[in-house]
Amino acid sequence: MKAQNRWIFLIATLLLVILIAACGGSGEETAVSEPDTSPTTQDTEEVNENPEEVDAVGQCTDALSGQVVEMWSPLTGPDGDEMSGLAVRFSEENPYGITVNHVAQPEYVQKLNTAAAADQLPTMTVVRVINVAELAERNVLSPMSAATLAVFGDGIASEFPANVWDAGQYAGERYSFPLDMHPLVMYYNKDLFAQAGLEEPGTTPMTREEFEQALQALADSGVEPIAIGTAFQGATLFQSFIQQFGGSLTDEAGTQATFDSEAAAEALAYVNSLKQQYSPEISGGGDPEVNVFKQGNAAIVIHGPWHISDIQKLPFAGFAPLPQVGEQYAVWGGSHQLALTTDDPEQQLAAACWISWLSENSIDWAKAGQVPARNSVRLSPELAEVAAPIAAVAPTTDSVVILPQVAELEGALWGQFGPVVDAVLMGEMSDVEAGLADAVGKSQQIIDENKERYGG
Q1: Do residues 409 and 447 lie in contact, with contact meaning Cβ atoms separated by under 8 Å?
Q2: Which of 114, 76, 63, 91 is nearest to 341 (CA)?
């Protein structure tokens, strides 16, 4: 009977299991099965309720609608009008509802410092590349956040020459985004070149032999070949030719002044030889050498591209790069960069959307007499159609010499070698080496003081 009872028990248990399975499965199966984690319709609606806000991280979207970007700049001339026009165009065309207001500020560094002290900074500023480190040290500029940088896209650095892209990096962070570069331009008189039987210069820099032969041919034809002045022009030629002759203003770190070298003496002597031979009477501020060229009284003048807007109105004007008179090509130049003066995440993103658009459309900024920094714009065939003078000097941008990013470095240098350059060109100093050595000592003292001040 015990065996029979055991079989009855087993049969009853089996029937019970079958009955439970028929009613929907056992609790044991439910315990080991993987849970269904797909969202319900209600969950999905909650997650996607504000898709713009989710996408706004590192992107330009409608979530930025209503953001007003106030941008200050040192652009107080015709270039300021061009920038204001671009700001209006972006404000009208961008689909995100962002408005940009451009405010030109004379003495913009002083204005920014004052605004920072009063906690009244704008969203961003156009900054001269020489001021990035100083304004970063004074907490006027704010580093760009990861989300802000994401707006520009991966690989954005490859869109710019290394010299101008690297200049926006300071203390391990990105403080500015390159907009343009402005190398020296060789303006020439087409009519006077033709009168002297000379071919017009091309977009490749003239060699020293070609340059000097052209000067001689122009002189033989009875015209003043080149207008060389003092002040800005003399100093920028000096800086360009130092590099061409193998020297530099400072070491790579920007901590040691080095413009007392043989290359520096050779550079200054070369500028002085041109001046004394062809235009010893020109001197002073206000660019009088440019006026001599505009009047048709000199065949060549070498100066900044901001004169293009006026000079291109002259029917005889041509445009070419600075000649190469040394072993390696180099040219003085600067750069306008775009920097943020706010830490607010939404303001930074809105500004980044404007910066990205402005960079991509900077072919129109070339009309202001600036070379677009962005490779795809600068190398575009369209540049010659929009701004032929800029296209003529655009190939030299890789050779623009930009000082190391050290706070107040340019002032420490230029304020000391500038007077020496002027004194030599005006015939007031004959011992070039001694003058440069004395200036280097003064520059070094200021560099050291700045380093202590800023803790560099």
Answers
A1: yes
A2: 114
pLDDT recorded at residue 236: 98
Describe the crossing of helices 78-93 and 345-360 by its angle, rounded to 10 degrees: 110
Strands 173-174 and 169-170: antiparallel
Better-predicted residue by pLDDT, 319 or 11: 319
CA separation for the pair 103, 78 (Å, rounded):
13
Q: Are 114 and 85 in contact (CB under 8 A)?
A: no
Outline where 67-123 has alpha helix (H). 78-93, 108-117
Q: What is the DSSP string of 352-384?
A: HHHHHHHHHTTTTGGGGT-EE-SHHHHT-THHH
Tokens of 219: 């002189």
Question: Which pLDDT score is estimated for 55?
Answer: 39
Pairing of strands 68-73, 99-104: parallel
Element (H, E) at 72: strand 68-73
- Which contacts qualify for 243-249: CB closer than 8 Å, 24 or more apart? 243/326, 243/328, 243/330, 243/401, 244/324, 244/325, 244/326, 244/327, 244/328, 244/329, 244/330, 245/326, 245/327, 246/326, 246/327, 246/328, 249/403, 249/413, 249/417
Which H or E run includes 124?
strand 124-128
Q: And the tokens for 353?
A: 């959307």
- Model confidence over 232-264: pLDDT tens digits? 999 999 999 999 999 999 999 999 999 999 999
Picking from 69, 156, 74, the residue whose alpha carbon sits closest to that of residue 334 is: 74
Answer yes or no: is pLDDT of 204 > 60: yes
Whole-number pLDDT of residue 61: 95
Mean pLDDT within 175-190: 98
**Is residue 212 within 8 Å of residue 265, measured between CB atoms?**
no
Q: Both tokens of residue 200?
A: 């017009």
Query: How does DSSP assign 221-281, residue by residue?
Result: TTS--EE--SHHHHHHHHHHHHHHTT--SB-TTS-SB-TTSHHHHHHHHHHHHHHHHH-TT
Per-residue pLDDT of 349-359, as tens digits, reads: 999 999 999 99
